[in-house]
Amino acid sequence: VRVPVPQLQPQNPSQQQP
């Protein structure tokens, strides 16, 4: 039984600047 690995999105608050 293969368990799908959840894709974790890296949270980079530094790159949230427009």
From TrEMBL:
It comes from the Eukaryota. This is Beta-Gliadine 13.
